[in-house]
Prior knowledge:
The chain is built from 9 helices and 10 strands. The protein is an alpha/beta fold. The strands form 2 sheets. The chain has an 8-stranded parallel sheet. Strands 1-2 form a two-stranded antiparallel sheet. Helix 1 crosses helix 2, helix 2 runs parallel beside helix 3 (113-123) and helix 8 packs parallel to helix 9 (272-285). The longest helix is centred in the first third of the chain and has 18 residues, at 83-100. The two termini are 16 Å apart.
Amino acid sequence: MIRTDSALPTATRRIMLRGQLYDFSSPRVMAIVNVTPDSFYGGSRLTDRDAVTRRVEQALAEGADMLDLGGYSSRPGAAEVTPEQEYSRLALGLEIVRRIAPQAVVSIDTFRADVAERCVREWGADIVNDISGGLLDPRMPSVCGELQVPVVVMHMRGTPATMQQLTDYNDPLADTLSELARRVQAFRECGVADVIIDPGFGFAKTTEQNYAIMRGLPEFEIFQAPLLVGISRKSMIYKPLGITPEQALNGTTALNMIALQGGADILRVHDVKEAVETVKIFKLLNP
């Protein structure tokens, strides 16, 4: 199961950022920066300028390759956030990042096309990370095509409020691949040249289904695109272990290594230092 450098063709592990190739020959670490008061993991909730600044500085100091800014919690039961509220939170994060580290690669975690467009045009956001793969806002593919911005296309069914009622699959891995393929095609048809694939761990999936997809990660090579895995402190880790998200760092690190062995190019994490160390150990196995 351990991936070697030859397991994926090098050309499939690059995207265009700011007119230059961004390489995934070495796995990248994406730091979660939630400018929200109600994310599922309490340690990631940032509600003021000082807290966001400290988080960005720490993530970059610990070796984050990318920052993923979110202004709308996608956990079940999270409060509704208006587009203006979401944009205001993201703009705060973007202003801080661009002041502290102008060259940092910034991803915007939003499913709203208007919010994504403002963040890209006004702040130079580099990547749009859409948890719905364009399903919650049908304008997203065309807007991203017009902006010529890379997109993280994630698999989800329904909405954050309804997704855990939509876990009826014939085959979790095969159905996820098929449904993702349709979403990727929608973005490609609108001119999006660079997509990043996210299987959507924890979104419209039971614990057992999440692990079935984790075992099948090498199958996502079919997309010929970088693969993002985001399992940091999620319920697929803490529920089977009978612990809390706050106690799930050890399980997260173990599963991140398994994800790298299965072909992950990006680890989306709360805990940057531990993820960077995991990547370093993985690279010693795959020199």
